[in-house]
Design a protein that fits this description.
One of its GO terms (cellular component) is cytoplasm. GO terms for molecular function: spermine oxidase activity. Belongs to the flavin monoamine oxidase family. This is Putative polyamine oxidase 5. By secondary structure, this protein is of the alpha/beta class. Among the domains are: 5-48 and 226-261 and 268-329 and 470-533, FAD/NAD(P)-binding domain; 111-135 and 144-216, no CATH class. It has helices at 15-28, 73-80, 112-129, 150-164, 179-198, 208-211, 229-236, 296-302, 319-327, 402-410, 413-427, 479-485, 517-534, and strands at 7-11, 35-39, 51-54, 57-60, 65-66, 101-104, 108-109, 222-223, 244-245, 250-254, 263-264, 270-271, 275-279, 284-287, 289-292, 312-314, 329-331, 333-340, 360-363, 385-388, 395-401, 433-435, 438-440, 452-457, 470-472, 502-504. It has a 7-stranded mixed beta sheet with strand order 7-6-19-20-21-18-24, sandwiched between helices. Strands 9-2-1-15-26 form a 5-stranded parallel beta sheet, with helices on one face. The protein has a 4-stranded mixed beta sheet with strand order 14-13-10-16, with no helix packed on it.
């Protein structure tokens, strides 16, 4: 009698899925111990890693940064495959070295002496929240569910700062801006940047206690010259042809939490494997083990039971797993790339000086303020920066989070160009002159005008394969929920069914490195090793 080899199916060809496949294949291929395959619902590998080109430059539609090079497995792979250098220009190739120009709504250049104290305050507060500096706060200001949020902690710090400063101070040459309004708006600018870091639509929904558990590697943060996709391609390069199957969207996972019975197939045959996968084209596949690496957004949709055609579990996931999925946060962050009609090096002023677009930090009036410029669209008011992707690039980049990010996905190109143009005309007013990317306060007679030729935007929120960007620990959740996300099914001590039927990997299953590509990488290794240990192979 021929003994069947265990069948392992990995759902998703992103960082977690391909890392798991790479590990399983590398260890077991020579011994021919497993049948491994990766099924991917889309038409490409990479998942939330998607390197592209725009305006002749290499850009990232999804994951962008290596968050610290000291000990990062992503950085190690990038070094090994020589992906950190390229002859083609790439996004943020000059890092964060470019000095920002901060301008308040109405075209008022904000001197660093006004910006720096608020920047220092914000950074110190975030260092406290992230556990880098011990805090003795006894705050009672709570977010949702009666727990302290990062947003409430930050606002308490701002209130204490403003309360200790002078009374309402007028600022000469700043129109209707007062010192207090400007301080609050600069602080809000930093909050909006933090929203894109965390994917939280509102920092008042971001749990304070869990923030200090999130870890980053030491060292500088860099982008990958040859693109993040080069890491994915390296992981996939060892896999034999046909192991990764594209266009194979799983709609239902049938598993056996209580007992093991042979499953009936449509052709009248039975299958002894405990898990059955159903695909959108009507085909089915059996498996002994399934590693689910879909996003937390897709998992959230799977527990809503609204028959939307999304991934479903039959029987439904146990309550401990479903409740963790429900409590954790999963937000939308999108990137908007805009190409200048005229390359910066071709723009000249009347003195024949090159006029590059500045690395612009935008300080907006509150969306509710009567002082706001009505032509600036609401979806621009909670973005913080608009800047070239490297010095003198003709491609500009802005980041959006939450409601604004979702709104961006539905806007037409003409609407986006009009909204950006109206915003720029308000910020880069007639009182400012830009030379080589630096601001000169010398007045000149004509308004600084820029024209855009095209835009490119990510659309992670409405993509049915992702339904968002990355996870965060929401108020009401905790790091324990991230651990729960990583628990395989069924629970061995309460079930007589075959173990490790459904395993979970992905950034939202790592307690200390959630929301990152290296967290996804670690999770893929973790689940591959779990199966190898099960079969006593490591």
């Amino acid at each position: 009698m021929v003994v069947k080899k265990p069948q392992i199916v990995i759902i998703g060809a992103g960082m977690a899925g391909l890392t798991a496949a790479n590990k399983l294949h590398s260890v077991s291929a020579s011994k021919d111990l497993f049948e491994v395959c990766v099924v991917e619902g889309g038409n490409r590998i990479g998942g939330r890693i998607n390197t592209s080109e725009f305006g002749g430059d290499r850009i990232e539609m999804g994951a962008t940064w290596i968050h610290g090079i000291g000990g990062s497995p992503i950085h190690k792979i990038a070094q090994q495959i020589h992906a950190l250098e390229s002859e083609q220009h790439w996004e943020c190739m000059d890092g964060n070295e470019n000095k920002a120009t901060t301008i308040a709504e109405g075209g008022f250049l904000v001197n660093p002496s006004l910006v720096d104290p608020i920047t220092k305050l914000f950074n110190n507060l975030m260092d406290h929240a992230q556990g880098k500096i011990p805090t003795t706060t006894t705050t009672t200001t709570k977010g949702h569910c009666g727990k302290l949020s990062v947003g409430s902690f930050l606002r308490q710090g701002l209130d204490a700062y403003c309360g200790s400063s002078k009374e309402e101070e007028e600022l000469k040459g700043f129109g209707k801006w007062s010192r207090k309004l400007l301080d609050e708006a600069i602080f809000a600018m930093h909050e909006n940047t933090q929203r894109t870091y965390t994917s939280a639509a509102n920092l008042f929904t971001l749990d304070y206690a869990a923030e200090s558990e999130c870890q980053m590697f030491p060292g500088e943060e860099i982008t990958i010259a040859k693109g993040y996709l080069s890491i994915i391609e390296s992981l996939a390069s060892v896999l034999p042809p046909g192991l990764v199957q594209l266009g194979r969207k799983v709609t239902r996972i049938e598993w056996q939490p209580d007992r093991h019975e042979a499953m009936n197939l449509e052709n009248g045959r039975t299958c002894s494997r405990p898990v059955m996968l159903h695909f959108c084209d009507g085909s089915i596949m059996s498996a002994d083990h399934v590693i689910v690496t879909v996003s937390l957004g897709v998992l959230k949709a799977s527990i809503r039971d609204d028959d939307s055609g999304m991934l479903m579990f039959n029987p439904p996931l146990p309550s401990f797993k479903a409740e963790a999925i429900s409590r954790l946060g999963f937000g939308v962050v999108n990137k908007l790339f805009i190409q200048l009609s005229e390359p910066p090096h071709e723009r000249k002023d009347e003195h024949e000086h090159s006029k590059g677009f500045p690395f612009l930090q935008m300080v907006f009036h509150s969306p509710q303020s009567e002082l706001r410029h009505k032509k600036i669209p609401w979806w621009m008011r909670r973005t913080a920066t608009l800047c070239p992707i490297y010095n003198n690039s003709s491609v500009l980049l802005s980041w959006f989070a939450g409601e604004e990010a979702l709104a961006l996905e539905s806007l037409k190109e003409e609407e986006i160009i009009e909204g950006i143009s109206d915003t720029i005309s308000c910020f880069l007013s007639h009182s400012l002159e830009f030379c080589n990317g630096n601001v000169n306060s010398e007045k000149y007679s004509h308004e600084y005008k820029v024209k855009f030729s095209k835009v490119l935007k990510s659309q992670w929120g409405t993509d049915p394969l992702f339904l968002g960007s990355y996870s965060h620990v929401a108020v009401g959740s905790s790091g324990d929920d991230l651990d729960t996300m990583a628990e395989p099914l069924p629970k061995c001590h309460i079930s007589a069914s075959p173990p490790l039927q459904i395993l979970f990997a992905g950034e939202a299953t790592h307690r200390t490195h959630y929301s990152t590509t290296h967290g996804a990488y670690f999770s893929g290794l973790r689940e591959a090793n779990r199966l190898l240990q099960h079969y006593s192979l490591c």
